[in-house]
Write a structure and sequence with these properties.
By secondary structure, the chain is an alpha/beta fold. The protein contains twelve helices and eleven strands. Helix 9 (198-209) links the parallel strand 7 and strand 8.
């Protein structure tokens, strides 16, 4: 059963005649009769009582008529809601650091709001450093980048903040603590994101300010392998609060730094010398609203 069959069925109900219905929907009488017969076979019931005067829907036919109208109304609503967005050409490219789309999905993936503003953005994910490079090299129009941001190169509008955190196996001595201080990580084996991520750059800078160099035994390209290595007790691993909460394991203890500002901050950025188009301005206004 498909929506075309339902439309044919409704046409027969309204016309009370196979012949008249066929004419109204511009198909042959034989094709319409075959469609109704196929529908009756699929549903294993009789939908019409036939007579010399035409056709009348049976009890099951009346039930199907009611439900078919609901189904077609839903189809029309879905088509009306989605079609303008999906047929509109892409008119904006936005570079995104990993995780930014997830945390801003209510805005970024709201097709009805974007359509109303005649916006059809394409989102392209990058590491933090490559996201800024993509904006700087005009590979994308705008960026959803992780701070800190070089304000000599970019305009930046703050969007949201989350916290970096550390995943500690329950067998580790630090797992018994309620608080974690930076100096406690001085001699620990750390499992960190690589230098393409601001987490690495920012944490290395914090450690340097305290007079030590962190011991990274593994630098990953994403957070998933970090969690696996912590589970195998190879060291203390980096994560963000929203990812750690989503994939929390009973063997893990999740702690944030208490004595240092170590945050995952998302900014909307564009080049300092860029003359913004109307679409870009509209998208910026939308995100900041």
């Amino acid at each position: 059963m498909d929506t075309k069959q339902l439309k044919y069925f409704i046409a027969v109900c309204q016309s009370r005649s196979i012949t008249n219905a066929a004419e109204s929907i511009f198909i042959s009488q034989q094709a319409l009769s075959a469609s109704i017969a196929k529908l009756e076979k699929e549903l294993q019931t009789t939908l019409f009582v036939r007579s010399a005067k035409g056709v009348e829907p049976t009890k099951d036919g009346l039930y199907l008529l009611s439900e078919a109208k609901k189904i077609l109304a839903i189809e029309e609503e879905i088509t009306s809601y989605l079609s303008p967005f999906h047929t509109m050409p892409i008119n904006l490219k936005v570079g995104c650091s990993y995780g930014a789309v997830h945390e801003l999905s209510e805005k970024l993936l709201n097709s009805s709001e974007l359509t109303a503003r005649l916006l059809r953005p394409k989102f392209i994910e990058y590491t933090d450093v490559k996201c800024e490079k993509a904006v700087e090299n005009n590979e994308v129009d705008l960026g959803l980048a992780i701070g800190p941001i070089d304000l000599n190169k970019f305009h930046a509008e703050f969007l949201l903040s989350r916290k970096y955190c550390f995943i500690i196996h329950q067998s580790h001595p630090l797992a018994s603590q309620d608080k974690l201080e930076l100096m406690q990580l001085k001699d620990e084996n750390l499992i960190m994101l690589n230098e393409q991520f601001k987490a690495n750059i920012l944490f290395s800078s914090l450690c340097e300010q305290r007079g030590f160099t962190p011991e990274y035994i593994f630098e990953a390209g994403e957070i998933a392998p970090i969690q696996n290595l912590v589970l195998k007790q190879y060291g203390i691993g980096l994560s963000t609060d929203f990812i750690a909460a989503k994939y929390k394991q009973p063997e893990f203890r999740i702690l944030q730094l208490e004595d240092a500002e170590y945050s995952w901050n998302v900014y909307l950025i564009w080049k300092r010398d860029r003359v913004l188009s109307k679409k870009e301005k509209d998208f910026i206004d939308y995100l900041l609203s």
